[in-house]
C-alpha cells in the first residue's frame, strides 16, 4: 500500500510553494507522481453579477481582464513548480507517470476552482492543500471541504513552513469513531514508514475511557508499533488539546477523522475539525 498519485491544486499565489513542497515530501517515500493542477476561472461566470444591462463591450473587457490575470497566475505557478521540483529533486514530465523518482506534471483546466479540484480528487490517492485560515477566499475553503466531504479521499493540510518528511513521528487522534478509523487505514502508507507512532486520546473526566487496544492490535498486524497517551481536556476545546499534545509529543503529522459529525452540526457547534483546521500549526492528515 502506497500513494502513487498526489494532487496539488495551485492558484498562482505564494501558498503554491508550500503546497508543492508538502506534496513532494509526501511523494518521496513512494516515488509518487505529483499532479499539479491549475484551474483557470471561467470569465463568463462573473458576468451575471453585473446585471442584465451589461454591454458586449463590458463583457469583453471582463473576459480580457480575467484572461490577463489567469495568464499571470499560470506563469507564477509554473515558475514555482520549476523551483520546487529542483529543490526536491523531482523530475518534471508532461503527463502522470510512475518512475524511480518523484515526478511532477502541470495541467490546466477551465471552470470553478472547487468543482474542478473535487473532480480531480476522485482519482487521486492524496490531495494536498496549503494552510487554511479564517477569512481565506471562499473558493479555497470550499475546495478543501468538498474534497474532504464528497470524495472520500484523504487530505493533507500542510503547515508553514512545509516539513521535509512526514515519516518521522506521527500522532493518531483516536476516539473510536468511524471517521478516526478511516483516517488510520488511509494513513497506513505514512504509518508504515514512520519512525514513531503515538495514539493520542483526548477525554473528559465524565466520559467513558477510550479503548485503543484493538487499534494497537490492528496496527501491529500491519507492522506498525504504536504507543498511547491519554490527555484530559478538562474545560478546553478538544481541538486545542489535540494540537497542543501532538506538538508537545514532537509529532510532525497529526492524523484525524475529518467532520465526524454531520456538516450542519459542525457549523452550529464549532466542531473539532473546523477548529483544528483553522488553528493548526502543524500538518494534518484528514479523512471523512
Question: How would you describe the overall organization of this protein?
Answer:
With 288 residues, the protein is an alpha/beta fold. It has two domains: 5-157, HUPs (Rossmann fold); 169-287, HUPs (Rossmann fold), CATH 3.40.50.620. The chain has ten helices and eleven strands. The protein has an eleven-stranded mixed β-sheet with strand order 3-4-2-1-5-6-11-10-7-8-9, with helices on both faces. The longest helix is centred in the N-terminal third of the chain and has 33 residues, at 56-88. The two termini are 20 Å apart.
Features:
288 residues; alpha/beta; Rossmann fold; 2 domains; 11 strands; globular
Low-confidence stretches: 262-270
Q: Name the average pLDDT.
A: 86
Q: Quick one: overall form?
A: globular
Task: Compute the separation of the termini in Å.
Answer: 20 Å
- Total individual domains: 2
Helix percentage:
40-55%
From the alpha carbons, calculate the radius of gyration and give it in angstroms: 20 Å
What is the SS-derived class? alpha/beta
- For this structure, what is the CATH homologous superfamily of the largest domain? HUPs
Percent strand equals 15-25%
Task: List the strand order in the largest sheet.
Answer: 3-4-2-1-5-6-11-10-7-8-9
CATH topology of the largest domain: Rossmann fold
Spell the H/E element sequence: EHEHEEHEHEEHHEHEHEHHE
CATH architecture of the largest domain: 3-Layer(aba) Sandwich
CATH class of the largest domain: Alpha Beta
* Strand tally: 11
What's the tally of helices?
A: 10
Largest sheet report: 11 strands, mixed
Amino acid at each position: 500500500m502506497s500513494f502513487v498519485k498526489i494532487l496539488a491544486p495551485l492558484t498562482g499565489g505564494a501558498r503554491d510553494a508550500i503546497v508543492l513542497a508538502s506534496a513532494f515530501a509526501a511523494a518521496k517515500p513512494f516515488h509518487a507522481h505529483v499532479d499539479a493542477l491549475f484551474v483557470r476561472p471561467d470569465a463568463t461566470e462573473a458576468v451575471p453579477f453585473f446585471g442584465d444591462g451589461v454591454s458586449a463591450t463590458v463583457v469583453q473587457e471582463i473576459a480580457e481582464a480575467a484572461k490577463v490575470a489567469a495568464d499571470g497566475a499560470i506563469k507564477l505557478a509554473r515558475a514555482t513548480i520549476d523551483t520546487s521540483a529542483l529543490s526536491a529533486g523531482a523530475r518534471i514530465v508532461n503527463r502522470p507517470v510512475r518512475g524511480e523518482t518523484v515526478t511532477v506534471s502541470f495541467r490546466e483546466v477551465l471552470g470553478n476552482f472547487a468543482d474542478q479540484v473535487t473532480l480531480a480528487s476522485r482519482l487521486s490517492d492524496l490531495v494536498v492543500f496549503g494552510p487554511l485560515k479564517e477569512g481565506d477566499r471562499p473558493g479555497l475553503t470550499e475546495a478543501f471541504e468538498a474534497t474532504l466531504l464528497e470524495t472520500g479521499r484523504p487530505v493533507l493540510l500542510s503547515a508553514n513552513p512545509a516539513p521535509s518528511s512526514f515519516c518521522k513521528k506521527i500522532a493518531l487522534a483516536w476516539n473510536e469513531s468511524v471517521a478516526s478509523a478511516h483516517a488510520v487505514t488511509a494513513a497506513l502508507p505514512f504509518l508504515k514508514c514512520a519512525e514513531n507512532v503515538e495514539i493520542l486520546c483526548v477525554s473528559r473526566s465524565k466520559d467513558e475511557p477510550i479503548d485503543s487496544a484493538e487499534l494497537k492490535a490492528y496496527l501491529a498486524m500491519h507492522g506498525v508499533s504504536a504507543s498511547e497517551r491519554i490527555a484530559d481536556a478538562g474545560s478546553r476545546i478538544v481541538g486545542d488539546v489535540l494540537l497542543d499534545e501532538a506538538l508537545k509529543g514532537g509529532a510532525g503529522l497529526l492524523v484525524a477523522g475529518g467532520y465526524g459529525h454531520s456538516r450542519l452540526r459542525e457549523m452550529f457547534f464549532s466542531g473539532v475539525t473546523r477548529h483544528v483546521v483553522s488553528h493548526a500549526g502543524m500538518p494534518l492528515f484528514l479523512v471523512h
